[in-house]
């Protein structure tokens, strides 16, 4: 008999939360039994999101751990930074499994979080307890976790594109430069001047240079892969599109390699992993080739003239970068096939 897990979503009215509802509506072993809002409890969610009519029919619940426990087994926290660290302890105390989509449980060092996020960090015991759910790298430790920290959108695209080459010693980790671009939904549903239509349409801008909160998360995993402390340059840009992240990464090679050497190393590393697709023959992916799906597509361009490789990695920020990877993590936590409920073909064109 197959298990059905009952799920609650806190932050259900945000982009990550609404995407969780969309994806879980098609999951054969998950039922969304509670959608939670800190500002609109008591209203039907479809009132604000008519695309969910007949799909999510319940009323929004209050943020009340005991109420959530009476309805659910697992809770997704799709809340702004600084919220999950406050709510997770009481949810865990109720015996719920917690999957945190925010940055609150990703950095193991409290001081690092406080430096980059400018907020109070979660208590150390919860940072120690949290498993960092970059599925294709740390998937083995996800099974059985009760506090799962879902990686950031930029780190997901970037790290999946770098870890196999760093682990194999094919590139010098100290030489890596990461040039990343995101669609506007990456900033969430809240309004801000920078994301206003007239500000971003037909515009392309760099932001948070050398100050982005995903820098320590990327460095934490790169250092783990390299076996020594790595610092890196990571630059973010906002692109006038709704969904999608492209991370373009430059690194000096430690030897003489061709594109196909990277292709075979990456195909080996990701063997059996459904959601990473490696491009061959010197081709590299575009964001539309993964839109709406849980895929991360990666391609390479070796330059023998400079002895550098350029690695291009793309994801849909709301799927592999957030809700899709969170469900992939739930699948692994439950001991299910990681692709359960996630086999979407990208939306094209
Ligand atoms: N957008 C993206 O591409 C990605 C986002 N993330 C991370 O996921 C999290 C959610 O992002 P996103 O959905 O884009 O953000 P949004 O701003 O779109 O949504 C966040 C939701 O959190 C709820 N919320 C706000 N304050 C509280 C609170 N104190 N208690 C409970 N709920 C609260 C709000 O809903 P209400 O008022 O109804 O409670 C709001 O709709 C963030 O931490 C983000 O950084 C991670 C990867 C990618
Ligand atoms: C386009 C855009 O603004 N993107 C956001 C991504 C936010 C995010 O996902 O934040 P956490 O992973 O830290 O929770 C940013 O660059 O800050």
UniProtKB/TrEMBL annotation:
InterPro entries: AGPR (IPR050085), AGPR_AS (IPR023013), AGPR_dimerisation_dom (IPR058924), AGPR_type-1 (IPR000706), NAD(P)-bd_dom_sf (IPR036291), Semialdehyde_DH_NAD-bd (IPR000534). PANTHER family: N-ACETYL-GAMMA-GLUTAMYL-PHOSPHATE REDUCTASE, CHLOROPLASTIC-RELATED (PTHR32338:SF10), N-ACETYL-GAMMA-GLUTAMYL-PHOSPHATE REDUCTASE, CHLOROPLASTIC-RELATED-RELATED (PTHR32338). One of its GO terms (cellular component) is cytoplasm. GO terms for molecular function: N-acetyl-gamma-glutamyl-phosphate reductase activity; NAD binding; NADP+ binding. Pathway: Amino-acid biosynthesis; L-arginine biosynthesis; N(2)-acetyl-L-ornithine from L-glutamate: step 3/4. Belongs to the NAGSA dehydrogenase family. Type 1 subfamily. It comes from the Bacteria. It is found in: Cytoplasm. Its EC number is 1.2.1.38. The active site is at residue 153. The keyword Transferase does not apply. This is N-acetyl-gamma-glutamyl-phosphate reductase. Keywords: Amino-acid biosynthesis, Arginine biosynthesis, Cytoplasm, NADP, Oxidoreductase. The lineage of its organism: Bacteria, Bacillati, Bacillota, Bacilli, Bacillales. Its main location: cytoplasm. One of its GO terms (biological process) is L-arginine biosynthetic process. HAMAP family: ArgC_type1. Catalyzes the NADPH-dependent reduction of N-acetyl-5-glutamyl phosphate to yield N-acetyl-L-glutamate 5-semialdehyde. Residues 6-145 form the Semialdehyde dehydrogenase NAD-binding domain. It catalyses: N-acetyl-L-glutamate 5-semialdehyde + phosphate + NADP(+) = N-acetyl-L-glutamyl 5-phosphate + NADPH + H(+). It is an enzyme of class 1 (oxidoreductase).
């Amino acid at each position: 008999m197959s298990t059905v897990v009952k799920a609650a979503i806190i932050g259900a009215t945000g982009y990550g939360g609404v995407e969780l509802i969309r994806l879980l509506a098609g999951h054969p072993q998950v039922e969304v039994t509670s959608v939670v809002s800190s500002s609109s409890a008591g209203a039907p969610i479809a009132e604000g999101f008519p695309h969910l009519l007949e799909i999510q029919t319940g009323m929004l619940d209050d943020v009340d751990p005991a109420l959530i426990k009476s309805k659910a087994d697992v809770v997704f926290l799709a809340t702004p930074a600084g919220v999950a660290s406050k709510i997770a302890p009481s949810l865990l105390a109720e015996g719920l499994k917690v999957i945190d989509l925010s940055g609150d449980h990703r950095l193991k060092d409290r001081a690092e979080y406080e430096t980059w996020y400018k907020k109070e960090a979660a208590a150390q015991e919860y940072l120690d307890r949290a498993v960092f759910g970059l599925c294709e790298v740390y998937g083995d430790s996800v099974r059985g976790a009760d506090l799962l920290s879902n990686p950031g959108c930029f780190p997901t695209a970037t790290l999946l594109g770098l870890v196999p080459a760093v682990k194999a010693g094919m590139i010098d980790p100290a030489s890596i430069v990461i040039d990343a671009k995101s669609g506007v939904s990456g900033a969430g549903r809240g309004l801000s001047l920078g994301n206003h239509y007239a500000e971003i349409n037909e515009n392309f801008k760099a932001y948070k240079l050398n100050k982005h909160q995903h820098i320590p998360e990327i460095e934490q995993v790169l250092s783990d892969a390299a076996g020594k402390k790595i610092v890196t340059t990571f630059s973010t840009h906002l692109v006038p599109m709704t969904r999608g992240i492209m991370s373009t990464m430059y690194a000096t090679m430690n030897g003489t390699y061709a594109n196909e050497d990277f292709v075979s190393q990456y195909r080996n590393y990701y063997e059996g992993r459904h959601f990473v697709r490696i491009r061959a023959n010197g081709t590299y992916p575009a964001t539309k080739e993964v839109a709406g799906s849980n895929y991360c597509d990666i391609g390479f361009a070796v330059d023998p003239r400079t002895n550098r490789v350029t690695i291009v990695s793309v994801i849909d920020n709301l799927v592999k970068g957030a809700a899709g990877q969170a469900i992939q993590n739930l699948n692994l936590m439950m001991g299910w096939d990681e692709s359960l409920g996630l086999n979407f073909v990208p939306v094209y064109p």
